[in-house]
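testing teh design pipeline on a random one, pls ignore if ur not involved
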C-alpha cells in the first residue's frame, strides 16, 4: 500500500479556531529565579500557567490528566473523577481499537458520551502500546541507556522468551493483538481514522517509539520516519475534519521523539514545530535524571503559543521538574496502578496499606485530605477490604491517589501565579522524600 497524497502541513483548517491555548503567568517572571537556581537547572525556567480551550470545556494548566485507558479510570466512576477535581481524561487508542472498536464509540457519540464524562478528553495514538506490547515488554520499555555501545540491545530486540509482535515499515506497523493474536495494521492514516472515531478533544500523531537501548543510527532513522508520518497524520486529520463537519473539532498534537540526544530532540521540535499541529506531546525514551533537561531542550524550540503534554509521569519530583521546564499537561497510570497493590500517597511519602499496623488504624488515608475516601473511610476499613480481596479497596485508594496528584499540580499552578513556586516545591519535596 502506498501513502496517500499529503496536503501542506503548514495549512490551516477553517475549524481549527475551535481549539486554543492562552498563556497566563510565566514562572520566570512571577518567581524571579536566582542565579543559583538557573545554574542548577542548566538553563532558564520555561514553566507557565495557561488555559486550553476545547469544545468540551477548558483545562487550566499546569494540569494532571487522569488516565482512563479503556474509557475508564480503573475502578473509579467518571463521576468520582470529576468530583476529585480532574479536568480531563486520557484514553488509549490501541486498546479501544481492539475492544470494543472505534466504530462503537463513534456511534455512541464519542468517548465522552460513551463513558459519561462531560469534560475534555485525550487519546494517544496507540504507538507506544503497539511497540511496547509488540516487543514483549508489556507496559514498560527499558529506559536506561546501555553503558557502552557493544552492550546495547539489537534494534529489533524483544523481551526474553517473547515473540516480536510488531514490525515497522515505511507505511506503518503490522502487529498482533495481545488479546487474541489477531494481526492488525496501524499507519498514520489508520491511527487518525481510529482517533477521529473515538472522538477525543485532543489526539496525538502516530509515531515510532524507540528505547534508550537503540543505536544512534536507528534513532536517526526512526526520527525521520516519525517526521514523515507526522505530515501524513496532518493530511489525514485535515481531510477527516472536513469530512466530519458535524462533529466537534478535534485538536492534533505532534509527538516529539529523539531519545537522549539533544540534537535529535531539537531537530524534531523544529521540524514538527513548523507544521500546523495544535500542540505537542513530548514522548519517547528519557532517563529520569535527564527529564528536566530534555523537556527544556524541547520547549526552547517549540512554539510558545501552543500547549505541551509530557507523556507518562506522576512522581512528585518529576512533576515539579516537568512544570518548571515548560510542560503544561501530563498523565500517568501510576496513581491507580499502585492503588491496586494497596499503596497510597501522603505528603510525607507513599505507604502500603497492607501492613499489619493499619489493622486498627481508624484514621483517614491522609489527615486533612478532602477526597471522598478520606472523608468517609478509615485506613482500618480499607486495609480489611484489601486483605479480603474486595475490589472496593482499589476504588477508594485510587480516588485518594488521583486527588493527591491532581491537588498537588493545582497547588503548583496557584504557586506560579502567587510567586511562591520554588518555596512550594522545596517544602513539598522535602516532606515527601524525608
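output:
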Amino acid at each position: 500500500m502506498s501513502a496517500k497524497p499529503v496536503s501542506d502541513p503548514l495549512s490551516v483548517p477553517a475549524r481549527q479556531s475551535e481549539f486554543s491555548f492562552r498563556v497566563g503567568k510565566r514562572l520566570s517572571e512571577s518567581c524571579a529565579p536566582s542565579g543559583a537556581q538557573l545554574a542548577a537547572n542548566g538553563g532558564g525556567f520555561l514553566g507557565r500557567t495557561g488555559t486550553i480551550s476545547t469544545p468540551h470545556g477548558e483545562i487550566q494548566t499546569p494540569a494532571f490528566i487522569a488516565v482512563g485507558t479503556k474509557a475508564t479510570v480503573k475502578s473509579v466512576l467518571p463521576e468520582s473523577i470529576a468530583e476529585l477535581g480532574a479536568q480531563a481524561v486520557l484514553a488509549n487508542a490501541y486498546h479501544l481499537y481492539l475492544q470494543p472498536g472505534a466504530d462503537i464509540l463513534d456511534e455512541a457519540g464519542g468517548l465522552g458520551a460513551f463513558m459519561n464524562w462531560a469534560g475534555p478528553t485525550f487519546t494517544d495514538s496507540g504507538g507506544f502500546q503497539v511497540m511496547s506490547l509488540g516487543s514483549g515488554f508489556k507496559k514498560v520499555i527499558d529506559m536506561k541507556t546501555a553503558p557502552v555501545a557493544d552492550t546495547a540491545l539489537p534494534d529489533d530486540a524483544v523481551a526474553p522468551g517473547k515473540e516480536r509482535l510488531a514490525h515497522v515499515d515505511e507505511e506503518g506497523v503490522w502487529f498482533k493483538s495481545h488479546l487474541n493474536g489477531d494481526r492488525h495494521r496501524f499507519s498514520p492514516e489508520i491511527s487518525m481514522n481510529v482517533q477521529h472515531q473515538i472522538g477525543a478533544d485532543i489526539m496525538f500523531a502516530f509515531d515510532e517509539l524507540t528505547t534508550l537501548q537503540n543505536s544512534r543510527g536507528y534513532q536517526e532513522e526512526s526520527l525521520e520516519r516519525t517526521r514523515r508520518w507526522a505530515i501524513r497524520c496532518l493530511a489525514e486529520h485535515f481531510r477527516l475534519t472536513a469530512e466530519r463537519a458535524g462533529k466537534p473539532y478535534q485538536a492534533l498534537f505532534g509527538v516529539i521523539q529523539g531519545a537522549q540526544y539533544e540534537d535529535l530532540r531539537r531537530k524534531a521540535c523544529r521540524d514538527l514545530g513548523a507544521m500546523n499541529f495544535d500542540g505537542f506531546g513530548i514522548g519517547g525514551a528519557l532517563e529520569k535524571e535527564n527529564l528536566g533537561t530534555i523537556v527544556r531542550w524541547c520547549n526552547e524550540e517549540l512554539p510558545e503559543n501552543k500547549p505541551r503534554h509530557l507523556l507518562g509521569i506522576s512522581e512528585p519530583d518529576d512533576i515539579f521538574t516537568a512544570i518548571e521546564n515548560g510542560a503544561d499537561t501530563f498523565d500517568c497510570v501510576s496513581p491507580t496502578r499502585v492503588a491496586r497493590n494497596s499503596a497510597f500517597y501522603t505528603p510525607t511519602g507513599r505507604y502500603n496499606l497492607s501492613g499489619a499496623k493499619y489493622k486498627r488504624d481508624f484514621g483517614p488515608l491522609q489527615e486533612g485530605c478532602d477526597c471522598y475516601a478520606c472523608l468517609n473511610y478509615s485506613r482500618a476499613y480499607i486495609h480489611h477490604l484489601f486483605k479480603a480481596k474486595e475490589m472496593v479497596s482499589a476504588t477508594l485508594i485510587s480516588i485518594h491517589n488521583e486527588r493527591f496528584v491532581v491537588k498537588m499540580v493545582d497547588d503548583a499552578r496557584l504557586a506560579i501565579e502567587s510567586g511562591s513556586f520554588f518555596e512550594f516545591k522545596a517544602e513539598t519535596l522535602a516532606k515527601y522524600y524525608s
